[in-house]
Amino acid sequence: MRHLLSINDLSASDAIGILDTATELARINDGQVKKLPTLRGRTIVNLFAEDSTRTRISFEAAAKRLSADVINFSAKGSSLSKGESLKDTAQTLQAMGADAVVIRHSASGAAQRLADLEWMSGSVINAGDGTHEHPSQALLDAFTIRKHLGKGASDLKGLRVAIVGDVLHSRVARSNVLLLSMLGADVVLVAPPTLLPVGVESWPATISYDFDSVIPNVDAIMMLRVQQERMSDLFFPNSREYSRYFGLNSERMSAMAKHAIVMHPGPMNRGLEIAADVADSARSVIVEQVTNGVNVRMAILYVLLAGGPLEVGSN
Q1: Mind listing the pLDDT tens digit for each residue in 40-49?
Q2: Active site residue 55
Q3: Where is the Aspartate/ornithine carbamoyltransferase carbamoyl-P binding domain (predicted)?
Q4: Which partner from 222, 228, 246, 270 sits 20 to 30 angstroms from 1, CA to CA?
């Protein structure tokens, strides 16, 4: 495995290998060992042509905990903002000796293009491309679900997950549907018809327009951010109307199964897709998702650059 561009790059055993590696790294990190020498001498470049807080910092922390050298490269203040092509930027990074590039880009397929055209010899990790995919986010979400609800199983068979909200503009939703279904979970997408993409019927998920009917029957509810910055048209009448039908508030949370958890990939629009008291409740694992993201991204770097999954019980 050289690149991580899409969940489709993974088999179920590949995904479980990454999740198991993340579990083992979390165990090591929780002990006295805060830094591993695994990637000493390697250079990881975070190439972010779109704004990001959690993903960029998470990958940076993950690389540093594996002793890699990290270069953060943002579009603002770089030659990309002056019109430099992605190819020229990639070749510049190649000349600097990058062993891996973590790329976030507004264009769907940018990471795939970077890898396919072999503008650089290192690994390419897709940290979000347009409205296409965000595979590392899906892996950390699956890790979180397995940790809370997996009951010791390596996969997610028998679990039911609702993904709610702006599916149309969400790369997180697409990657999660692919990964969660691959691992055996039943996924239901809940959204107004205007916020579902063309061809969604072919995704390995069921579709519902009635949030209230779904809530009691799922083990996890993943709320999606309403991505107003990507909306050029009117997709729903107003914020109040959207929140009334598709927002997760305390009343809806009370209808959830006792063991069910609340998730959100962040950043949140508090008061729109999720109420503040729900986001901060005991059922919420939103902050934990951020913590888990570091361990999962450590695992991704470990698998890609160190030659495979970490054996359980390793020190």
Answers
A1: 999 999 999 8
A2: yes
A3: 2-146
A4: 222
